[in-house]
Design a protein that fits this description.
Radius of gyration: 18 Å
Structural class: mainly alpha
Number of helices: 3
Distance between the termini: 43 Å
Shape: elongated
Strand content: under 5%
Number of strands: 0
Length: 118
């Protein structure tokens, strides 16, 4: 990290690190959404909009997790790739890794929801 990527093994290490760091970013954002969901109070009465508010925060934070993963990947590795062919290969993984982490984010969130409310 933070050094020029000029060889194939360095590129492979950057790709692996991309997936690992994006998964870590997704886990951090899941913990944040759990915190936010617990901070939103249930509203008393017939009409309870707290579930809608939690859902909105879920998707807002999921979008932030996606954008933060892309920004982190760009500044951590893509900026340091010196070979054009490597940059093209890394771009594919730089886009796929946040998508995979968002699937992980949504899967962990649904699992926690099922464990807590079922």
């Amino acid at each position: 990290m933070f050094r020029p990527i000029k060889t194939a093994p360095e590129l492979d290490q950057a790709i692996l690190s991309t997936y690992l760091y994006d998964a870590l970013i997704a886990v951090v954002f899941v913990l944040i959404i759990v915190l936010v969901a617990n901070l939103i109070n249930f509203q008393r009465g017939k009409i309870d909009h707290s579930g809608k508010t939690r859902r909105i925060w879920l998707f807002v934070l999921m979008g932030l997790a996606f954008v933060s993963a892309l920004v982190f990947d760009y500044f951590a590795w893509y900026d340091y790739i010196k070979v054009d062919a490597f940059a093209n290969k890394y771009t594919t993984h730089m886009i796929v890794a946040p998508i995979v982490s968002m699937i992980e984010y949504f899967g962990i969130e649904q699992t926690l929801y099922n464990l807590i409310f079922n």
